[in-house]
């Protein structure tokens, strides 16, 4: 500032001196020169200010006007401030983008509503939950897009300290999808709606309840029988022969409970333990021979007077194979399939067990029987726990309803695939396909 004033006076002084000398030492001309230079100075200053103002209005911060002195300092300062602001803006935009991508990645739906309850923003999950198209439906009223009285009521509530469950828009009656919604208020009348697809959680809860009910039912029946016999033996006079008969029946029931508990333990171990390693190898022939022995003795026990024809055929190339995984689990899966065939095929029927090389290094373990067969509608549900086609037939032959559930788990844990085909009145075919990664030649 001082320098500016100094320069101004220096200019006037030197101008006045020049005019004074040109005018032959005339003070009048010196005054005219003084005035003239002051006017020129002020016009020039005005011109520079006008340029600065125009530059500021254009906000063309990439092209610096050629201004020096104080105004040049102002220009540099403005450019520096502008760059700083730009950097802050870029960082804010980046933060906002990061924040939005984090919300996008959320497994929950997030929907922002304004004071009128129209949609301001939502993530992909919320869009798919509510069937919203973000381009088309932005700023539409949510209640107009999702016509559910429960949701409309919920959105209007003043105190929202609870969740609400609605049917997802567009979900089919045969496969209903359920959404759990929670509303939060923020800002001035704005709302944040969180949505969660709870279909699987509810299904799991139903399955858990069914499972507990099934186990209780399975255990209650033999327990009732047992306690009935105990009371009879305790309080009623019975002959030795009757006592023996009762004790045999009691042994049968306790045996049934034991089988059930064993199967339950096997299932829970299968669900809770790590996948069997690929470094434990068992010869296919060892599993094969044990299955054969078990099948033949079970068949003899069940049909002593009308024997079944049981044939075991194994391809030569499969004889030499070893299989990777848990020996006990594999044996349990194979013998479950074979024992089912024996149990469900009447005396005199035929059972064929095969192990075939199906190419590309894979093999298939197949159990075919000439039993009653299974109607097509039951086949997809056979591997559900406690699912039985014929309850009494299953119980009579010592079934727990868990055998095929065990087989399915074992198959999954060994990258194998269980396939079931059957024809009512003709028989059934159960096949376990083991992939080449789990097989090698016995060394
Ligand atoms: P279970 O212990 O009752 O045999 P599984 O899970 O092994 O239980 O089998 C489920 C149901 O599948 C059985 O109850 C039976 O109705 C049917 N099933 C299984 N194997 C056969 C078969 N070989 N022939 C006919 N039905 C079968």
Task: Describe this protein with a few key phrases.
5-stranded antiparallel sheet; single chain; 13 strands; 5-stranded mixed sheet; Helix Hairpins; 53% helix; alpha+beta; Beta-Lactamase; 4 domains; 443 residues; binds adenosine-5'-diphosphate; 13 helices
Overview of the molecule:
The chain has helices at 2-22, 27-58, 69-105, 124-130, 142-145, 149-156, 199-235, 240-272, 284-302, 316-319, 327-344, 391-396, 403-413, and strands spanning 109-113, 119-122, 164-167, 178-186, 190-197, 281-283, 309-314, 321-324, 350-357, 363-369, 417-423, 427-434, 439-441. The strands form three sheets. Strands 2-1-5-4-3 form a five-stranded antiparallel sheet. A five-stranded mixed sheet has the order 7-9-10-12-11. Helices cover 53% and strands 17% of the residues. It folds into four domains: 2-98, no CATH class; 106-197, 2-Layer Sandwich (Beta-Lactamase), CATH 3.30.450.20; 205-273, Helix Hairpins (Orthogonal Bundle); 277-441, Histidine kinase-like ATPase, C-terminal domain (Heat Shock Protein 90, 2-Layer Sandwich). Bound molecules: adenosine-5'-diphosphate. Adenosine-5'-diphosphate (ADP) binds next to helix 11 and helix 13. Adenosine-5'-diphosphate (ADP) is lined by residues 336, 340-341, 344, 369, 371-372, 374, 382, 387-390, 394, 399-405, 428.
What is the gyration radius calculated from CA atoms?
A: 44 Å
Question: If classified by CATH, what would the architecture of the largest domain be?
Answer: 2-Layer Sandwich
Q: Give the name of the CATH superfamily of the largest domain.
A: Histidine kinase-like ATPase, C-terminal domain
Please bin the fraction of helical residues.
Answer: 40-55%
- Tally of helical segments: 13
Question: Based on CA inertia axes, which overall geometry fits?
Answer: elongated
> What is the string of SSEs from the N terminus onward?
HHHEEHHHEEEHHEHEHEHEEHHEEE
Strand content: 15-25%
Low-pLDDT residue intervals, each spanning 5 or more residues: none
Gap from first CA to last CA: 98 Å
Distinct compounds present: adenosine-5'-diphosphate
Structural class of the secondary elements?
Answer: alpha+beta
Q: If strands are numbered along the chain, what order do they take across the biggest sheet?
A: 2-1-5-4-3
**For the record, what CATH class of the largest domain applies?**
Alpha Beta
């Amino acid at each position: 500032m001082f320098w500016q004033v100094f320069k101004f006076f220096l200019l006037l002084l030197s101008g006045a001196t020049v005019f004074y000398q040109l005018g032959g030492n005339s003070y009048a001309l010196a005054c005219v020169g003084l005035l003239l230079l002051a006017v020129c100075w002020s016009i020039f200053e005005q011109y520079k200010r006008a340029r600065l103002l125009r530059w500021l209005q254009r906000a063309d911060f990439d092209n610096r006007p050629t201004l020096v002195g104080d105004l040049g300092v102002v220009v540099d300062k403005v450019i520096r401030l502008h760059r700083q602001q730009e950097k802050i803006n870029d960082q804010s935009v980046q933060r906002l983008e990061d924040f939005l991508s984090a919300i996008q990645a959320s497994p929950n739906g997030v929907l922002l509503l304004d004071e009128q309850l129209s949609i301001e923003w939502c993530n992909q999950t919320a869009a798919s939950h509510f069937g919203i198209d973000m381009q088309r439906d932005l700023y539409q009223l949510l209640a107009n897009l999702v016509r559910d009285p429960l949701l409309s009521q919920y959105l209007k509530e003043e105190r929202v300290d609870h969740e609400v469950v609605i049917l997802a828009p567009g979900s089919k009656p045969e496969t209903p999808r359920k959404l759990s919604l929670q509303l939060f208020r923020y800002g001035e009348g704005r709302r944040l709606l969180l949505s969660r697809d709870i279909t699987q959680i509810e299904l799991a809860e139903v399955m858990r309840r069914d499972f507990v009910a099934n186990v209780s039912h399975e255990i209650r029946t033999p327990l009732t029988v047992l306690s009935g016999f105990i009371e009879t033996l305790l309080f009623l006079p019975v002959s030795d022969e009757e006592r023996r008969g009762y004790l045999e029946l009691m042994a049968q029931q306790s045996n049934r409970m034991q089988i059930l508990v064993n199967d339950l333990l096997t299932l829970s171990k299968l669900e809770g333990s790590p996948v069997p390693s690929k470094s434990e190898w068992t010869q296919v022939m060892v599993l094969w021979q044990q299955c054969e022995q078990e099948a033949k003795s079970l068949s003899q026990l069940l049909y002593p007077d009308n024997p079944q024809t049981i044939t075991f055929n194994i391809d030569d190339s499969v004889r030499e194979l070893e299989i990777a995984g848990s020996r006990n689990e594999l044996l349990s899966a194979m013998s479950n399939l074979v024992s089912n065939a024996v149990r469900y095929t009447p005396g005199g029927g035929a059972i064929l067990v095969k192990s075939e090389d199906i190419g590309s290094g894979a093999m298939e373990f197949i159990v075919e029987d000439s039993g009653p067969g299974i109607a097509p509608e039951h086949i997809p549900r056979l591997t559900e726990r406690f699912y039985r086609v014929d309850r009494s037939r299953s119980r009579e032959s010592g079934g727990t309803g868990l055998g095929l559930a065990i087989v399915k788990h074992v198959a999954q844990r060994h990258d194998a695939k269980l396939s079931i085909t059957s024809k009512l009145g003709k028989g059934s075919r159960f096949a376990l396909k083991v992939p080449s990664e789990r097989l090698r030649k016995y060394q």
